[in-house]
Amino acid sequence: MNKLDFNGVEYKEMETQILDTIDRWVEKDVRPIAYHFDQLDEYPIELVEQMKELGLFGATISQDYGGLGLSATTYARIVSRICEVWMAPTGIFNSHLIMASCIQRGGTEAQKERFLPRFATGELRGGIGLTEPDAGTDLQGIRMVAKKDGDAYILNGTKTWISNGVKGNCLAVLTKTDPTASPAYKGMSLFLCEKSEGFTVGKKLKKLGYRSIDSAELIFQDFRVSGDNLIGGEEGRGFAQVAGGLELGRINIAARGVGMAVGATKMSLAYAKDRKTFGKPIAQHQAIQLKLAEMSTRAEASRLLVEQAALKFDKGERCDLEAGQAKFFASEAAVQNSLDGMRVFGGYSYSPEYEIERFYRDAPLLCIGEGTNEIQRIIIAKQMIARSEC
Length: 390
What we know:
Helix content is 52%, strand content 15%. By secondary structure, it is α+β, with helices and mostly antiparallel strands.
């Protein structure tokens, strides 16, 4: 594969081919199994193998390290198209790509050469270990400690709600190398940890929605990791590395919101054209038309916000304001559109045989993951104030 020119026709043609391939894959292989795997909360092993073949585990990893080297804009479009049908598969490769982004943007050259090619193929798969039983949004409150021991570090602590925690084999883990640092973020470091003795799965966590992707509690008990796995090779940089990775994560969450908002709108429109009451399709009733109009407008506004954030990310510009706006609005749009879809479907919406029921269960996670929407509002406001003073 030739190196892509992000401003050239070659890249645009490749993007079209990739998106067409994703569309065919979604219809042929994803849609037919979504109901079964969601209801059983079963990990889609064969689908993961297909995602490896499609290159999704290396989607945003540079071609220099064996990835596809896709822009955040293209990546967001891929995520949206999958989420129009089923959100869970996108979590399997998104958490993985946040981990990869932390190394690609903040790792040493030796770490990039050692890990990124294995990430790109899916040989090493996993995610990012941030959340703990007493620390989620407030990452500076984590308790996991990494204590230096010769040329290695000993990790002790527990992480929870970790995507890919059961089936994944590698994790970027946020720790405190200096628990006494003030402010706390200056004493935080990020380690790349492959599963081995001392790094175990406590339990798989049951969830209302977002099933089929494993969320787990992970226990580190005297887990020894080489100093070569300290991302960036220098203590105290972990918090900044995570923040950079979460920009891509928030764009991904926003893209999921777009996909779910669009998917809910499409299925509601199709149902409204088919379902009849009082002698005519309910799509001809004004009350339903008002809902459909609002749903489609939310979905399109969300898409435009995601495009704006992704374009800034691709230019290498700071985009925490734009990513926050996109994540906040698109996730709320997904929730509202799933609820409006439930109302369009009426009593049938309570049957799992209709996909809108799954959308209604999956969507609320988007308002929580990668920073709650309450935090997003604060980030947006602070960035507005800071930019107005420049």
